[in-house]
Amino acid sequence: MEQPFGKRLLIVTKKIRKGISEKLPKEIETDFPVLVTLFKTEQPLKQNEIASNCYYDTPTIVKVIDKFEKLGFVERKKIPEDRRANIVSLTEKGKKLFPLILQAVTEIHEKVFQNFSPEEKITFLQSFEKIEENLKDLQAQPPKSKEN
C-alpha cells in the first residue's frame, strides 16, 4: 500500500533533521535551528520570535535558550519596555558554530539530491514551491505546550 504524501513528507523531514543532527556536536544536535535563525537574522530576536521561526513551543524554547546560554552560544537580556520578554543574540562562540552547521546541512542536502539530474532537482524544488504556495493560507504554528 502506498504511503500518503503527508506521511512521506514527515518521514523525509525527520530523516533530514536526524542526518544533520548526527553531524553536529551533541550539545547542539537537534536544536541547531535556533542558532541558524539567530545567525541568519543577524540581529537579536525575542524568544517568542525564535520559537515561532523554529516551530518550538514556549517551554521548549526556554530550555534550549537556557542550555545555549550556559554553553556560551547565546546571550539573553531583558527588554526594558517589556519585563516579561527577553531578547537573545548569538555570542562570538555561537557564531563560530555556523560553518559547522552549514557544512552538515550542505552534506545532507547533497545526499537528498544525489540521484537527481540538475533538471530533476529544479523541477522538484519548483513543485515544492507550488505546494507551499497552495498552502500559504494555512500558517504553520508551533505545537501547543501542555501548559496552554
Short description:
Helix content is 57%, strand content 11%.
Structural notes for this entry:
The chain is mainly alpha-helical and 148 residues long. It has one domain (23-134): Winged helix-like DNA-binding domain superfamily/Winged helix DNA-binding domain (Arc Repressor Mutant, subunit A, Orthogonal Bundle), CATH 1.10.10. It has seven helices and three strands. A three-stranded antiparallel sheet has the order 1-3-2. Helix 1 (5-22) packs across helix 6, helix 2 (32-41) packs across helix 3 and helix 3 crosses helix 4. The chain starts with a helix and ends in a 14-residue tail after the last helix. The mean pLDDT is 89.
Task: Give the key terms.
single chain; about 150 residues; mainly alpha; Arc Repressor Mutant, subunit A; three-stranded antiparallel sheet; 3 strands; globular
Topology:
Blueprint: H1 5-22, H2 32-41, E1 45-46, H3 47-54, H4 58-70, E2 74-79, E3 82-90, H5 92-95, H6 98-112, H7 118-134
Antiparallel strand pairs: 1-3, 2-3
Average pLDDT score: 89
Helix fraction, binned, reads: 55-70%
Number of helices: 7
- Compute the CA-based radius of gyration: 17 Å
Topology pattern, helix = H, strand = E? HHEHHEEHHH
In CATH terms, the superfamily is Winged helix-like DNA-binding domain superfamily/Winged helix DNA-binding domain
Biggest β-sheet: strands ordered side by side in the sheet: 1-3-2
